[in-house]
Write a structure and sequence with these properties.
Layout lengths: L3 H27 L12 H16 L5 H14 L4 H16 L13 H16 L4 H17 L3 H17 L1 H12 L7 H18 L35 H16 L2 H10 L12 H18 L21 H4 L3
Helix pairs in contact: 2-3, 3-4, 4-5, 5-6, 6-7, 6-8, 7-8, 8-9, 10-11, 10-12, 11-12
Length: 326
């Protein structure tokens, strides 16, 4: 028979073991080493990323699956390559964002949101200093949360989006506004989203842009390819970023009920040196003509098969308006 002292000791050991079954697991997870980045050096990764850019700049939506297979294989060979992870996230984002291209989109198209979030989470872990990835991750959390009616995930994404906006305003003010542009025009956050577009312009030129005229010609000499303001202009990554920005902002103004201001904002896209080679210039010209009629159209959910006459974020060129070269 156990003596009282020995019994007390045995009970203590059992209690410690029970606590350790939960506590030790937490300690084990907490003490695990962080995943460390390792940039891609293999020919496999290089070729896969070349194919990514070729598809993106060429507007080859039908090649997404093929390029995803190559990129994912390269990532699995080196799961610590943040850039490759981000490119996988971009492809999943592109596929779901432009699903209006599909004759009969499947319900499983929403799985691209889940996968995009996963790979942007990897990218932010492996390249923590890139605020672009932070903004894309936040946008995917918001979108996935909306699809799955997960209020906690939506709030998490929203506040991450605000943090990303502060981390790189010139880039993520636009990202935040674009993600929120699908909200009803009566939602306060839609009004915030439109204001983010104006604030983007203010940041890009270093002073408040006239909210009535939207006049931008005087600022074209500020174009740069370096520093934080490089994202205000066209670049190799986004050959028609400038034109796409003003197309989207014009759409948001139309949805807000400001067609006359929208026409002036749309017209700023024509200031670009590459406007004549922009694949979507005819869309913009139509937008200018149809701005008043489009107020009602942009406030409605897009009809099945509608690829163009809805707000840019819901069109078949939601990504390509900025990224397709020609």
């Amino acid at each position: 028979m156990l003596k009282p002292k020995t019994l007390a000791l045995s009970i203590s050991c059992v209690a410690a073991a029970v606590l350790c079954s939960g506590g030790c697991a937490s300690v084990a997870v907490w003490s695990a080493p962080e995943k460390e980045p390792l940039a891609a050096t293999s020919e496999q990764a290089r070729q896969a990323n070349v194919q990514f850019w070729n598809a993106l700049h060429g507007g080859h939506y039908d090649e997404i699956e093929r390029v995803l297979e190559q990129l994912t294989a390269a990532y699995l060979a080196n799961p610590r390559d943040g850039q490759t992870a981000a490119h996988i996230g971009f492809l999943h984002t592109w596929r779901v964002s432009e699903h209006a291209r599909l004759a009969s989109p499947r319900a499983t198209i929403t799985d691209d949101l889940v996968l995009a979030r996963k790979y942007f989470a990897e990218a932010t872990l492996l390249v923590p200093g890139d605020a672009r990835f932070q903004g894309f991750l936040a946008g995917m959390e918001l979108s996935e949360g909306a699809v799955h009616q997960d209020e906690k995930l939506q709030r998490q994404g929203y506040f991450k989006l605000l943090d990303a906006k502060d981390a790189w305003p010139e880039f993520n003010l636009f990202t935040a506004g674009y993600v929120l542009s699908s909200l009803p025009h009566t939602d306060d956050k839609y009004h915030d989203a439109l204001e983010y577009q104006w604030e983007t312009l203010d940041r890009c030129v270093g002073e408040p842009v006239d909210r009535r005229t939207g006049a931008y010609a005087r600022y074209m000499s500020l174009e740069t390819l370096s520093g934080s303001k490089r994202v205000c202009w066209n670049s190799w990554i986004a050959p028609h970023n400038f034109e796409g920005f003003f197309l989207n902002m014009g759409d948001m103004l139309v949805k807000s009920g400001e067609p006359e201001t929208a026409r002036r904002i749309y017209a700023n896209a024509k200031l670009s040196k590459t406007y004549v080679s922009w694949p979507y210039r005819n869309v913009l010209e139509d937008r200018i003509q149809q701005a008043t009629d489009n107020v009602a159209a942009f406030r409605k959910p897009p009809l099945a098969g509608e690829m163009t006459r809805t707000i840019m974020g819901q069109t078949a060129f939601a990504c390509m308006a900025c990224h397709q070269e020609r």
